[in-house]
Design brief:
This protein is of the alpha/beta class. The protein has 2 domains: 215 residues, NAD(P)-binding Rossmann-like Domain (Rossmann fold, 3-Layer(aba) Sandwich), CATH 3.40.50; 34 residues, no CATH class. The protein is built from 9 helices and 7 strands; from the N terminus they run E-H-E-H-E-H-E-H-E-H-E-H-H-H-E-H. The protein has a 7-stranded parallel beta sheet, with helices on both faces. Helix 4 links the parallel strand 4 and strand 5. Helix 1 crosses helix 8, helix 3 packs parallel to helix 4 and helix 4 packs parallel to helix 5. It starts with 14 loop residues before the first strand and ends in a 6-residue tail after the last helix. The protein binds NADP nicotinamide-adenine-dinucleotide phosphate.
Length: 276
């Protein structure tokens, strides 16, 4: 992480647990929170993702640990929380970032496809939040930040599962904020606009002869989309989202709970309007 507006040591002594923290946006969040002094735990299914990410975080000077978890499994999630608490004694920040997604027409979406996205995004967010609650309550407070999206604001064809799950996460954010405010637990969400992580780049990759992607075509398609569809004229980066997460995790947001912050360069407001 090269530059940040946050002061050095802002999160010294704190413990942050980030699901899906080894890749894409989650990794950007881990980098920023780690650079501000938090001990970051990154949690997901694939050990190889976690090990590579932890090595990179440590190289940047952060304190990082890994936990393997499938957030669909409530028992395993509880064990993860116990493991982090045993190791560091506390959990100050939980970032619910893990998600699965793919395009599928609703009329032929299999029950498994529907279940899989709902279980990772919505159930996973609930299971992790519920499991961390006693830890945060006992220590007198904490911050839960879930990563949502904007596609459900107007609907998004071929994403019935993900839009329904993220709408559920928004509802959960508001409800948990009300239930847990009295314990000093703030619950907020960040709704990113388009960030060209690996998964998004794949969606922009045109089919090509021999299965070798034409990287220039991908770059052109990405630039074209940004010029036409994002008022601020560029794609987002994991650092854009991490900045909002760090703000919500910081004392500057001490009076903020139950809020969902859109960070998208104006994309969803402009949706449907062509900028030529
Ligand atoms: P990504 O790199 O694919 O991140 C997803 C992460 O979730 C991976 O690290 C994956 O790790 C983990 N994961 C998936 N299933 C899991 C499970 N069952 N249990 C535990 N971990 C699991 O995607 P991303 O683009 O950075 O997305 C991060 C978040 O931002 C998601 O919530 C996504 O919905 C949201 N978002 C992204 C965009 C965008 O344009 N990129 C826009 C709006 C919202 P393993 O494979 O190791 O499990």
């Amino acid at each position: 992480m090269n530059q940040t507006v946050f002061r050095a040591g802002l999160l010294d002594g704190q413990v942050a647990l980030i699901t899906g923290g080894a890749t894409g946006i989650g990794f950007g969040i881990a980098e920023l929170l780690g650079s501000l002094g938090a001990h970051v735990f990154i949690a997901s299914r694939k050990q190889e993702h976690l090990d590579a990410a932890a090595a990179s975080l440590e190289k940047q000077g952060a304190r990082a640990s890994v936990v393997t978890v499938d957030v669909r499994d409530a028992d395993r999630v509880k064990t993860m929380i116990e493991q982090v608490q045993r190791d560091r004694g506390r959990i100050d920040i939980l970032v619910n970032n893990a998600a699965g997604n793919f395009y599928a027409p609703s009329e032929s979406m299999s029950a498994n496809a529907w279940k899989s996205v709902i279980e990772i995004d919505l159930n996973g967010t609930f299971f992790c939040s519920q499991a961390v609650f006693p830890v945060m309550k006992a220590q007198g407070g904490g911050r839960i930040i879930s990563i949502s999206m904007t596609l459900h604001y107007r609907g998004w064809p071929l994403m019935a599962h993900a839009t329904a799950a993220k709408a559920g996460i928004d509802a959960l954010t508001r409800t948990l904020a009300l239930e847990w405010a009295r314990h000093g637990i703030r619950v907020n969400a960040v709704a990113p606009g388009p960030i060209p992580t690996e998964g998004v780049r794949k969606a922009f990759t045109p089919p090509s002869a021999g299965g070798v992607p034409d990287v220039f075509a991908v770059e052109r398609a990405l630039e074209d989309y940004a010029r036409k569809s994002i008022p601020l004229g560029r794609w987002g980066t994991p650092a854009d989202i991490a900045g909002m997460v760090a703000f919500l995790a910081s004392p500057a947001a001490d009076w903020v709970t139950g809020s969902i912050f859109v960070v998208d360069g104006g994309e969803w407001l402009a949706r449907g309007q062509s900028r030529g």
